[in-house]
Specification:
118 residues, 11 strands, four-stranded antiparallel β-sheet, seven-stranded mixed β-sheet, mainly beta
Length: 118
Amino acid sequence: VQLVESGGGLVQAGGSLRLSCAASGSTFSINHMGWYRQAPGKQRELVATITTGGGSTNYADSVKGRFTISRDNAKNTMFLQMNSLKPEDTAVYYCNAVLFTPGGVDYWGQGTQVTVSS
């Protein structure tokens, strides 16, 4: 499975960005997917996850009500709509895919930079 993120950039506080994660390869083996982020000097943290059918989502408390995760299985693409962005949202955002395998083998994208200016 290969994952490629896009859509990052520089935005002012209060603005919006939409991240995309395009999956290729053995996409039929993907169980759930998610977005994580890592700010300079901090550990990587969960932002949001979504199940295969898109019926179940989970968000970090810090982004609830501002971010929306979704996926288009026909296009093997996952999205993260980010609204009301804050400077503290500045980080490299990574796409993650967990497979239907014992132990949950997972894959990561290369990351896309999101910078929110105050």
